[in-house]
Amino acid sequence: MVGESCVKGYLDNTLVSAMGKQEHQSDLVALTALFALRDAGVISLVTSEVTHREVQRYKSSSRPDIEKVYDALEKVPLVEMNELVGISSHWDRHGGWNSPIFEDDPIWLGLLGLNLDPTDAHHVMVAVRARCDAFLTVDKRTILNRRASVETKFPIRLQTPSEFLASVSQP
To answer: Can you give the pTM of this predicted structure?
Structure first.
């Protein structure tokens, strides 16, 4: 088992799917090397139920292969974007109502404020809460282009698999 002190990378859905579909060949080479480092106990590779929710929506013939990749990864605890903190009730002689009161996670709200979409923000929030060192993705359009602002505000690096491999392979 990998020790708690080793470097931990969170794989988002784009990478889990890419491995299952055998897409993004240049990144697959780095991912294969990362899985070998994981198997050797040098690093930890994780994902979460957020990825599984996305995989469950797939209607492709690649879904079983994608699910195998998901199943092969350690899972960090799921933290929802918001939490039920109470219920407000009002009753009088005419009837009444109950209304749930939710509180949004402050990290998720902060990531939304940096213009990440809700699902991407949920992935990154879970990775931050799980104390991952890096959030791995190939999503340049909606995640990696916000790297500087996310890394300034939160204790995580947003990296491609190749960048993460280079950072963990240095002596």
So the answer is: 0.84
**Three-point CA angle 75, 158, 11, nearest 5°:** 25
* Rounded distance between C-alpha atoms, residue 72 and residue 168, angstroms: 20
59 with 23: CB under 8 angstroms? no
Give the CATH superfamily of 7-80+103-169.
Answer: 5'-nuclease (3.40.50.1010)
Give how far Cα 148 sits from Cα of 36, 119, 155, 169, Å: 29, 19, 12, 23
Q: Which two tokens stand for residue 80?
A: 């929802």
Domain range annotation of the chain: 7-80+103-169
Residue-wise pLDDT for 141-163, tens only, equals: 989 999 999 999 999 999 999 99
